[in-house]
Specification:
alpha/beta; eight-stranded mixed beta sheet; 2 domains; Rossmann fold
């Protein structure tokens, strides 16, 4: 069997500029490299902290194009890059999410007769007719379509992908980082974020984008009494430059006062915040899955999530959290309904054990490697 070599085409910026799906794939590549014979190269776009040209990130070769190269230029650049990678031995072309780069990649994969792996991180590709048609062309070109949740798998089916080409699996979680904290670890984490023993700490973690629906969290904490507190954490979303400033102003003017705070940055040690938390909130308007939800569950943290996301398989009311209507009134009511669960040490331990077994990255990585290798045949 030939050595597995992947040409990964990123739809936008690749870390260190923040991108949830891209960051997750970067970590997956690093893990695969530890225990398999495996190589990957990346084509992405330049960002605020990266420049056009060739570089390396954690030993992975990365080539970056101008942020907005234009339709013809991007199409030709991707083709030239893929031809060069195939001549160097690349036997799999891999994309994640959607966008112009990804759509052009689907066309080139067909022209170059190389197996294409398509992973969708969200289930919103049918918003417009043009986007649906492009996503349909891409998805039907895939030898392997990776769906991170049931709604995403259903989306692939509506786009016409055969059942045998769809692999539905959750996002992998590094359970060495995200696991139940010891009492000492939890106490230290709560001290770091200024949380005393009586406080019930809720966290809303993710990029500062309107689709994360932070306003529901802010209005809900304003309805909840002491000792409830909310920390919102995440980096500004580059495509919505005004949103982070508007959110910061809303936090400053909140009637919740010192019970509401904003950390407007990417946290490299977000597991510390999970260790301090009593509950994770995810009131998002749209999510393919929500990796922070899985990470919180692996840490034994119950989750309150929007009931419009179709994620019933992950959060069950009263058992490991609650699914609520994403309105402030319904959200606050849902939180109060599971206070006993939030304070139950044994329940947190059980949530962590069950979730680590389901979402452990090493089992999921091994299956991914097996499926990719099967395409090389």
């Amino acid at each position: 069997m030939p050595e597995l070599r992947i040409a990964f085409i990123c739809p936008g910026r690749y870390p260190p500029d923040f991108g949830g799906a891209e960051l997750r794939l970067h970590r997956t590549f690093l893990r695969l490299r530890q225990y398999h014979t495996f190589q990957v190269t990346v084509l992405a776009q330049a960002g605020e902290s990266t420049s056009v040209g060739h570089s390396e990130l954690d030993g992975i070769p990365v080539r970056r194009l101008p942020a907005d190269p234009g339709v013809v230029s991007s199409f030709c650049s991707i083709g030239k890059h893929l031809v060069g990678e195939i001549r160097s031995g690349a036997n799999i072309i891999y994309t994640v999410s959607t966008g112009r780069f990804v759509y052009w990649t689907g066309i080139w994969a067909r022209l170059l007769h190389r197996p294409l792996v398509v992973e969708f991180a969200n289930n919103n590709v049918e918003d417009t007719l043009q986007r649906r048609l492009m996503a349909q062309m891409l998805a039907r070109s895939a030898e392997l379509a990776i769906a991170i949740s049931r709604p995403v798998a259903d989306q692939f089916r509506r786009l016409g992908v055969p059942e045998e080409r769809i692999w539905m699996r959750p996002n992998p979680v590094d359970t060495r980082r995200f696991r139940l904290a010891s009492p000492e670890q939890r106490a230290a984490a709560r001290r770091r974020f200024g949380v005393d023993e009586e406080t019930i700490l809720h966290v809303l973690v993710g990029v500062l984008s309107e689709r994360k629906n932070h306003i529901v969290g802010i209005e809900a904490i304003e309805r909840l009494p002491e000792p409830h507190r909310l920390i919102i954490a995440g980096p500004p979303f580059l495509q919505e430059p005004e949103y982070a400033a508007q959110l910061a102003q809303r936090v400053r003017s909140s009637s919740a006062g010192q019970r509401l705070s904003l950390i407007a940055e990417f946290m490299t040690d977000v597991e510390e915040l999970m260790h301090a938390a009593d509950c994770l909130w995810m009131p998002s308007i749209e999510e393919g899955l929500g990796n922070v939800m899985l990470e919180a569950l692996c840490c034994g943290v119950p989750c309150v999530i929007s009931n419009r996301l179709g994620l019933e398989e992950h959060v069950s009311d009263g058992q490991n959290g609650f699914q609520a209507e994403p309105t402030a009134e319904a959200w606050a009511k849902a939180v109060l309904s599971i206070i006993g669960l939030l304070r139950d040490v044994e329940a947190r331990k059980e949530i962590s054990e069950e979730s680590c077994a389901l979402y452990d990255c090493f089992a999921i990585d091994s299956e991914l490697f097996r499926r990719l290798n099967s395409l090389c045949k």
